[in-house]
Model the fold of this input.
Amino acid sequence: MYAVAILGFGVVGSGVAEVLDKNADRITQGASRELSLKYIVDVREFPDSPYKDLIIKDFSVVENDPDVRVVVETIGGVGVAQEFTRRALAAGKSVVTSNKELVAKFGCELLQIAKDKGVNYLFEASVGGGIPILRPITQCLAANKITEIYGILNGTTNYILTSMIKRGASFDDALAEAQAKGYAEANPTSDVDGIDACRKISILADLSFGRHMDPDWVKTVGIRTVTAEDVSYAAENGFKIKLLGRAVLNEDGRIFAYVAPHLVPEENLLAGVEGVNNGIVVRGNAIGDVMFYGAGAGKLPTASAVVADVIDAAKHEHARKLVSWDEGDVSMMRDSAELESRWYVRTGEKQYITPSAQSKSSIDASLAGVEVLTLFRVLD
Ligand code: HSE
Done:
């Protein structure tokens, strides 16, 4: 028997169970073997779930069952998820996850355990929800030196900004609407303050540049300061405001990385990425720019990417995917304040876009003594 266990029966975990059932024939064909969902580990009770007979509370049952070859970790966070991932890998099982917090912080170490054990740690769903992005970077674009990667990496904030742009909603109203629709969580901090996007750009940079970039090294600003005045000024001047994560390889081999709201020109494809969709641009020295677009969040889109990794792990049980990156240290980073761009400035008196590119340090110096209400980069 080739069995699968799911850890965490929340939105994504239940989506994984659903996709495994719904597309069983296609999955068997893709994996060249039949996969059987044997356990779902969760501390909660699910008496009405069609999967209630599979639900157990004790992870060690999974850990000690040799039939379980792939463990899907959809718990989230770095506490229990990290411990169970380590134990599953140490027990010789491949682990598949959508947990960007864990991958961004501890991916390097977990990949090493997987390597030592001859199994796989796969996390396509951790960035871009259902959009294929990590495999294209490591496989399809492998012939390129990647020099920059940037994009809309958070569906919730893009949904909020889209409401502000299309309906003229205030940030607070747009957030309340996103919460009512179930996109934003009751505590929306990790989305609206850019933390989720920061984890995702860190993973993209790890894979693109080959060294661990800790999320703590990435200057991160969210969308709480975006106002209806900023949105309408942007629209009048041919821009849309988008929260971008960005990582740029400098000529000296060091990296500029940050998350911040930007004014994106309307003719840029990213300006047309609306609602919970994500759009990610990868710049390679042979391919030029390629863009990946699609559903960046949601139960079934995310489950689609998780189950694809399950299929991959099952199909290549004895062939490790050669995905890894080296340890990094903060000296590999450049201060993002030194990265030049044009700037959108709003003071109590006026709004304008600087005519030429300059560093943040330089614009801060030129605005000394002025009460600056908004200062966003322009994506040129
Ligand atoms: N909260 C995330 C988002 C979920 O809104 O994009 C997908 O990672």
User: Anything to note?
Assistant: The two ends are 54 Å apart (CA to CA).
